[in-house]
Amino acid sequence: MSRGAGRRLVGMNNTTTTTALLADKVAFITGAGRGIGAAAARLFAREGARVLLASRTETELKAVTEEIRAAGGTADHVRCDLADPESVRAAVDRAVELYGRLDVAFNNGATVQHPGPMDELSEADFDRVLAVNLKGPWLAMNAEIAAIRATAGTGAIVNNSSVGSLMANPWLPAYGAAKRAVNSLTASAAATYGPEGIRVNAVAPGGTMTKMIDDWEAATPGILERLVAQTPLGRGADPHEIAEAAAWLLSDRASYVTGVVLRVDGGSRA
Question: Pick the catalytic residue: 99, 175, 193, 256?
Answer without folding.
Answer: 175
